[in-house]
Amino acid sequence: MNLEKGNLLYRGKAKDVYQTDHQEQVIVKFRDDITAGDGEKKEVMGLKGYYNSLISAKLFKILEDAGIKTQYIDLPEPGCMLSHKLEMIPLEVITRNIAAGSLLKRFPFQEGQTFDPPIIQIDFKNDEYHDPMLNDDIIFALGLATSNDLDIIRRITLQINGVLKSFLESRGLIFPDFKIEYGRDCNGNIVLGDEISPDTCRFWDKETRDVLDKDLFRKGESGVIEAYQKVANIILDKEDKKKWSLDF
Ligand code: UDP
Fold this sequence. Notes:
Layout: E1 8-11, E2 15-19, E3 25-30, E4 33-36, E5 41-44, H1 48-65, E6 72-77, E7 80-84, E8 87-88, E9 91-98, H2 102-106, E10 114-124, H3 136-141, H4 147-170, E11 173-174, E12 177-180, E13 182-184, E14 190-192, E15 204-205, H5 215-218, H6 224-235, H7 238-243
Antiparallel strand pairs: 1-2, 2-3, 3-7, 4-5, 6-7, 8-13, 9-10, 9-12, 11-15, 13-14
Helix pairs in contact: 1-6
């Protein structure tokens, strides 16, 4: 897709956002940059943006079909997602079904311990302060969201977890945890934004327990892009693959 120069609205660590001719629509461009550890570890990994855009578009579509509002409008081509323009809320909303990652370093949970109901953790999206964990009072004092906003965010997040967890389980994937971000659309509604991909979720193979997400990169292991491709292969339907002439 031809992106006119000069209309870049935002450049993040792995995605760019471009204005379109339509005031309320943007193109989210998924880049091949991959980072970890507060952006300290950095690489470019060919096809990462391609797979992440296909995976995110598919999961957003599944959520839309379940009645959850997302930024997703269309995927005109892999790598570029046409989306509703949102004013992003700088919160990282993490849902945990199984204890993994940083949670084990910070709290005395057992590795692999399951959480039912799941844990919702909200961090401040702020590189300068290293994304610290928040509580409701700090969120209010910083003016990031109201009590009503948080009620909505928690309710939608639990719904998203339910929909994605059962879909992924049906495809043979375990869904230990994931991070999502919300924004406000032009009507002030809270809408799911950002991405849902192996960059922002943990996915484990139910049979082999193989890790199929960014943890491979975080730990310096090989097969990162092969894992992302495998997730795309598992999540996409025949019709999606036919549309993009994917032969994996
Ligand atoms: N996560 C993310 N961005 C962040 C921090 C976490 O997408 O800045 C995701 C991560 O991929 C995982 C979940 O949120 O699926 C929980 O991450 P955790 O707190 O365990 O941190 P990590 O161990 O990944 O640093």
